[in-house]
Amino acid sequence: MAASEGTSPSSIAVSSFDTALCIIPPPDQSRAMDQLRSLYDKAYGKWPPHVNVIYPFVTPELLTEAKNRIEARIARGKLDGSHDVFLNQAGSFSHRNSHTVFLQSSSTQCLDALRSMALEALGQTPSTYNFHLTIGQSEDQHESSRDFLLSKARLIPKVEIRPDLNLAILVRERTPGQTQDASRMRLWSILSFPSLSMKTASPLIEYWLPRSNQSDKALYSPDSVLESDPDERVETALYSRSIQPGTTYHYDGYSERWLVNTLTSTCAFTSSDLKVSSYNVLVDCEYPPSRDRDPLLLHAILSGPASADIIILQEVSDDFLSYLLADSRVQKHYLFSTHGPPEQPDIGPLPSLRNVVMLSRLPFSWEFVPFHRRHKGAVVAKFDTGASSSLVVAGIHLTCGLTDGSVAAKRVQLHNVIDHLKRNHSSSSWIIAGDFNITTSVYVIETALKNNSISQHATEILASIQTTISEAGLLDAWTVSRIQATDNTLTMESDDLFEGEESATYNPRENQLAAATSGTSNNRPQRYDRILVRPESSLRVAQFNQFGLSTEQNGQQIVPSDHFGIRATMRLFTSSRTSDAASVSSLRQTPIRSRFAESLLADTSSMHHALEINQMVPTTDEQHEREDAFSLLKAVLTGSSTQFFTSDIPMVIVPVGSYALGVWTSSSDIDCLCIGSISSKMFFKLAKQRINRADAQGVRLIRRVDANTGTMLELSVNGVAFDLQYCPAARIVERWPEFHSLHHSDPIFNLSMLSLRKLKPYRDISYILRTVPSLATFRLAHRCIKLWTVQRGLYSSKFGFLGGIHITLMLSWLHKQMTLDHGTVSAADLVCSFFHHYSTFDWKNEVVYDSFFHNTKPKYQRNVREPMVILGFHNPNANVAHTSTSPGLYVLIKEFKMADEYLCEEGMSWDCFLGQRVAHIPSSPNTGMEGFLASHDSYAQINIQYWGRSLAKGKGLVGWVESRSLSLVVDIHKSLPDLSVRIWPARFTDLESSDTVQYYQGCYLIGLSRKFCADTYANKEDKVLAKQSLLQTFSRFLDQLHAEDKYYDSSTSWIGISLVKPSDVKDLRLDSRDWGDYEADLGEDSEDEVEIGENQDDDDSPASQKLPLRIAPSSSNTPVSTKKLRPASDILNRLRWDSNLDPSEYIIGYEDRFLGAKETSLERWKTEQTDEEFIPQHRILYFKRKSDGMVVWERRTRIDMVFGSGEGVGQTDRN
């Protein structure tokens, strides 16, 4: 308030708002005040923290005279210079729209005397005044907003001001063209009273001005008046963005207080592991503080899954930090902190309502990197390890929300942190952890875009954030851990998750606090919290987990915060451990050819829509139907109720294949594997009995199939098709709860090769489900690629093309590598990259394998007849593409390139790519059967006619011809290598309704075209020779089919082959014949089951369940020993797949049906029944080492030098 003017003739008016007489606290007492003022006081950056004595003051021209008068008057007055003034109370003024919060003294006697003497010196009449130091203004007029700021002001340490030392004159500095509000107060002079004080005032610098302007020391003069920028927010922002050094506190057990750390900041990591946690503890109200969740938060922070070397907390309030740091367990574990307890009198409040705080077991130095927005910034701590590369940990809490402004703010904030680290810590290892608030759910993003809540530009910014992270060399710890199968996060068992919702840390569907604070109707899970790592050859992510999860107490959900906490465990490497350090960056060494979806293809929802139109996405009813069918079958086989599944015989039943992977369609069957403690023979007899009894429940046995991995039952459960296999392994059943966490080298997997082959699909799928970064993304991309292969006639592994397992292995590795290289990728990006990468893949020399599972390239002995090699994960690691052929690979590469080109065409959409013809894209792909029938020069037509009465024989005949047709493709390619040979993986017919006539007639078609249009078969003579060669190939193929009397009977069937023109096949249609269901009795055990019986001890089957041993050709009619001998299949697989053994060093002796005993190299031995050179394994006589002629396994003498079964090393007379 202005002082009233007196009547003295020598009075000086005090009416100028351009000057002020005030008391300015010294800088060492202003830190806590300025920390608050920078966020809450609109005068910050223009005024220092001050207590006005006279304001308005005299005009600038009279400052010198006024200064002299006041100094003289006070010098001869009775002001007690030894009397200190303490600002020890907080108060507030009320305004129309806000409150002003300030500090004041409980005793103003000294200040009143000072003001009176100063006014008298200027010839003015003394008056009363409300002395105060402004801290800030509340955001609104609500009492909670005022009380919040008041509570912070009360936490400011007691401020001491000395009127005799700190009395100053300020003068306003203006910038031409700017308003008065944009001006700032400069220090004009400090009043001196040497006779009143024994102390000497320290030189006062203009510490309240932006640092860039502090070099300007010019005091005010009438000729140098400048006007400043009118936008005070810009001025404040410029100041707030300067780096602010932080004060590290450590707990002193002797004084039982948190003190400023004066110890050396050099720390030595005593463990090879470094654990870093991040946790958003949630401030759910401004004032008064809520304390009901504090014990839950403390328990979560101190829990085992959260225990860390460094923990970064977000949304920390004054009240909670005081509560946290007062706990003795925290004081013992985390000795160092970026902030002390605000309730400790000498520390002061935290700057904001929601603060980032870092606690550590190790000493550190830190600084605060403010963002443009108030209350936002990064805590950047440096841990000086004494090594060449230090560790820098940044804790962040980015702006929340999904709007154009908030998305842009997130990008700028993250860029500021990364840029700061690059400029100041370029050679250090980085860890950036905290609440990134980046929306990860694709569903939420696409919904916001459709509702115009965000613009297309905002979605591009979100994508660019991931690019920024990758380009900075930062790895997402969760992604790396998941890819490496070391993610211990509890996966949500839900099929309705969208892309970007896996391992969510903010999940309104499972967290009631998140549901209350989500602020959106979508309530979709988000992975907001992250830990990013730049290893720099000294760190490697080893593990990842969540903590602070919800629990149930008395039927109510108990959850500490709306976020789940996260923790990353990293391996530390020193310069002495070069071999380990060299592997840190190995994750990025596998090259990949990425291509990202653009334009219309970038819309993932349009891909989903196209898949729904093509019936590739199961409906909810279909999902429930299969769930019920699986539960029913499980109950029938285990002999239990559908509710509890308590089996009378120890066994587990699990899905495998597409159903287990979640990529099934309405036409897919369900593959099941039963693992039990009884023998295979006993199981299948028991299964048949129980299935027959459940006929009234809709469970039917269709037939038994002797598959490569043993007996398989085809079932129907209420119309849902099932394929059931069995694996006898009692020890696995006993340890089933821990099965998924067992290492692949665990002794429990010391099973027969047949049992391992049966377990392999489940083990491999389990690994994929645990390691794929986004199951929703993977499943959507998988379905898209599968639909494309089906439409293009490429979805059939038995015809040498792709099957579900091929797509799964090729796509899962691609997904992992792209996520590691680029961050989050969409299903559209995966599909585009799939075709681009594999169209240029070096199939001849390279192998498709998961480099994250196999640390080094697998030692696979590639056969010359394997143009494609795609390896899985667990042993036996056979080539899943073993049926591939050279002509089939040629077709695949050609189709991949064509798909890659289509996806690059302007205006291409998923509807068009997946089969819908689009007028404005002339080159849109011609899909389906029509394209095949119109794209070849001629066709090899394999005709089948059957008029017998047995459905089983008819189906067997067709299946036999189908299994042999691939060999014809290979033979044609051998005789005419310049031809493109392509078989369509389905039967054709020209009958209108082949399922109603008395006989069957169908055919398989093999398309034949010239690969090169130039000189291939250019003249008539070449064409004649080519046709003759082709017909000779046809004749040999027919002879082979007719010679197999097991399937071919000339009295009931006919098979023929001919060369036809495109016009002859244009009216053919796909055969939809339904052969009907029939039941086959379970006859004698197959050869595979005999091998199980020979090795039941290894399969954990009871010793009493013995199967008869097959007698090998021998002159002796009794075995040498009764000890069980490992079957030939185990020896064959061990010699073939054991990396310590060389398959080329071994010979197989076998019994030829016509020539007697023969030998061949192990590498030439064929195990597939579709191969021409296939020989049943029961004809194997012995295995012999080439180098010394030593027999390592022999059936007759029961010698086994490979496993030590039978007679072990034994005795043999064979050289």
TrEMBL record:
Residues 504-525 have a biased composition (Polar residues). InterPro entries: Endo/exonu/phosph_ase_sf, Endo/exonuclease/phosphatase, MJ1316, NT_sf, NuclTrfase_I-like_C, PolA_pol_cen_dom, Polymerase_NTP_transf_dom. Signal peptide: none annotated. One of its GO terms (cellular component) is nucleus. Residues 653-681 form the Polymerase nucleotidyl transferase domain. SUPFAM superfamilies: DNase I-like (SSF56219), Nucleotidyltransferase (SSF81301), PAP/Archaeal CCA-adding enzyme, C-terminal domain (SSF55003), PAP/OAS1 substrate-binding domain (SSF81631). Residues 1079-1101 have a biased composition (Acidic residues). Residues 777-901 form the Poly(A) polymerase central domain. Residues 1125-1195 form the MJ1316 RNA cyclic group end recognition domain. It is found in: Nucleus. This is polynucleotide adenylyltransferase.
